[in-house]
């Protein structure tokens, strides 16, 4: 992390609930982290609350306060971000704080695992989406003009760089190897992905031959220029439109999927539909020096404050945070506790067809840690 | 059409099979058009074969010959386009002929109906996707530079204009009204969409506040500035990532969906997965003066030339072509014949789990006309 822990096992986590159900699921994730059994190797957590979000913007005129950034950099080794509300039309001066956070902390890869729970009777899949997290249309370079007929014409720049594409590609191939290693510990009958590890590159280079051409060539180059490391990883590719189609027809055909920012955003929401709820899908925004866990779902204003939100995406995001900070044992405990609750299928929030509250699901996970 | 028919009922259709299975499904669609029962009101078809595609490019150095464009403009009232192969990496001088065709003929709306067949036991949906067809990232303005470290950086322009957004929006609201009118003829028990007609606007204005902001405002304006015409049509909106999620969770929640070019491309492939096969989904590229029918699927080189291709997307595209040329009676005959074959479920190509050939499916449709 940016801030080096004073004592090696002390970990300071910034909690940024932001808007809506973020304020229910981030405390749930915190409770799970605090309930982890203490061992010599596991971290001792300190938490600090940090502000951000649309509501904060409405009150104070700023969506991501300087203080939040400064304290993340100065005091924290990682953070958990809840969810942010989007105003439905342009609000002068407002800009998404999570997009800004990714950029300011150089969190270049958004890691989004989407997997069915073995034995849950669901459609089987075990995908890891690596979404490039700093550029593409998210650079927010936009302009508007008026044409000769007095009509408006707007442009946005889409940026694809060799630098960012390579970092995202390396993350994809490294995670493919890592997943393969971890799978060795899973009984063969429970392994969803049986083959050689594989990275699928998503692009639209039949239309965007220069930008997506550069993306494609660079990610391919990660393997081609480092066969010693990656010869054990297969590589294929999908046009983004076909990817969405195939993901729904044969989700079991994918292992690691690597995509430019916007395609990754769309694909990960689509994949979430396959596992039954956006409320299950976590992510980690990963950089070389910092990690921010973040559920893939939004702020869900329609159910906020009613204890209806599914805390599992946030709880799993806390697991991803630990995993990418190097505490993979504690991360695995969290994943297994969540899988246990899901497999049992008794305690679930309304998005999964149940009647349990956010707190009840959180307690059930804690009991299994 | 650009070329006015000499005799009012004579219709000249340009056939552009292009690559791969395009060469099997376009003849199938032609056979269906030729098998339509002749009446006073129905058109007399003439067909002319026109070249285009990647294979044509490889032989002659041009993907969309001038002659094809000139004859479409000079002799045809409409066209059917098959599918085009995409080279997996950049080929100097090659550019997609279908994207060029849409632009040259000003085919500003890509109309993509995706519906389950009533009584087929499938997940029920009845969506019409209107995809803006001339701009967004499809303007192909791209450039590449080298940064201070000698690394490549590429940019693409994404264009959203008030002009194009309004035309797409008008098409969406007009089609919503049209569908509502046609539904009145369907027995209530067979109507998949029961409510007031609705247009859902897809965007990502939480990130692209200027370009997608302009898109959103302009499409909303179509209704807001013309309540006399459109007050009977509901309007809502979805962020593109949520749209893909919701489409898979509750496809029955959508009537007409209107999207910028690239989102529309992705959403329509996704919707195709819901009805069981890309081989079922047709489209029409519609302008004020010309229509090009085009199956949504690609050239499928893996099955080309083997009589395995599903001709239904192309046959339905011929129906859409007629519909948008004003021959809605003949179009309805085609749709009903196809639905009959699908509902019976006996004669189907391998993509639908059957063993029938392209020709057998085509013959079965013709028999029901
Ligand atoms: C809130 C929004 C800016 C964000 C994004 O598009 O990245 C969200 O959809 C996500 O996936 O984290
Ligand atoms: C072939 C390709 C350029 C095209 C597109 O992206 O528009 C295709 O996917 C489509 O949907 O018609």
From TrEMBL, chains A, B:
- Source species, domain of life: Eukaryota
In Gene Ontology terms, what is one molecular function of this protein?
homoisocitrate dehydrogenase activity
According to the UniProt entry, the coiled-coil residues are: none
Give the Isopropylmalate dehydrogenase-like domain ranges. Answer: 12-365
A Gene Ontology cellular component where this protein is annotated is:
mitochondrion
Q: Matching Pfam families, A to Z?
A: Iso_dh (PF00180)
Biological processes, Gene Ontology terms:
isocitrate metabolic process; lysine biosynthetic process; tricarboxylic acid cycle
* Annotated family: Belongs to the isocitrate and isopropylmalate dehydrogenases family.
Specify the protein name: Homoisocitrate dehydrogenase
Q: Which organism is it from?
A: Linnemannia gamsii
Q: Which gene encodes it?
A: LYS12
């Amino acid at each position: 992390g940016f801030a080096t822990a004073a004592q090696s096992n002390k970990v300071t986590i910034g909690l940024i609930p932001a808007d809506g159900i973020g304020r229910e699921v981030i405390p749930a994730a915190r409770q799970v982290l605090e309930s982890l059994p203490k061992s010599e190797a596991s971290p001792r957590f300190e938490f600090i609350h940090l502000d951000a979000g649309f509501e904060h913007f409405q009150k104070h005129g700023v969506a991501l306060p300087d203080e939040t950034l400064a304290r993340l950099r100065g005091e924290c080794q990682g953070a958990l971000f809840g969810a942010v509300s989007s105003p439905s039309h342009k609000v002068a001066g407002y800009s998404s704080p999570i997009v800004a956070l990714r950029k300011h902390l150089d969190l270049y890869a958004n890691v989004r695992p989407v997997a069915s729970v073995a034995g849950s009777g669901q459609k089987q899949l075990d995908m890891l989406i690596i979404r490039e997290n700093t550029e593409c249309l998210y650079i927010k370079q936009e302009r508007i003009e008026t044409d000769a007929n007095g009509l408006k014409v707007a442009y946005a720049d889409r940026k694809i760089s060799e630098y960012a594409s390579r970092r995202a590609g390396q993350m994809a191939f490294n995670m493919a190897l890592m997943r393969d290693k971890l799978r060795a510990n899973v009984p063969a009958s429970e392994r969803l992905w049986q083959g050689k590890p594989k990275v699928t590159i998503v692009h639209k280079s039949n239309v965007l031959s220069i930008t997506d051409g550069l993306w494609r060539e660079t990610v391919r180059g990660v393997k081609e220029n480092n066969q010693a490391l990656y010869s054990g990883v297969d590589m294929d590719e999908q046009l983004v439109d076909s990817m969405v189609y195939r993901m729904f027809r044969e989700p079991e055909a994918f292992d690691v999927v690597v995509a430019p920012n916007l395609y990754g955003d769309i694909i990960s929401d689509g994949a979430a539909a396959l596992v039954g709820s956006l409320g299950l899908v976590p992510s980690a925004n990963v950089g070389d020096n910092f990690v921010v866990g973040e559920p893939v779902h939004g702020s869900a204003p329609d159910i906020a404050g009613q204890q209806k939100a599914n805390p599992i995406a946030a709880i799993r995001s806390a697991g991803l945070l630990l995993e990418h900070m190097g505490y993979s044992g504690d991360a695995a405990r969290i994943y297994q506790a969540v899988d246990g609750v899901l497999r049992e299928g008794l305690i679930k929030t309304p998005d999964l067809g149940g009647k349990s509250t956010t707190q009840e699901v959180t307690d059930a996970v804690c009991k299994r840690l």
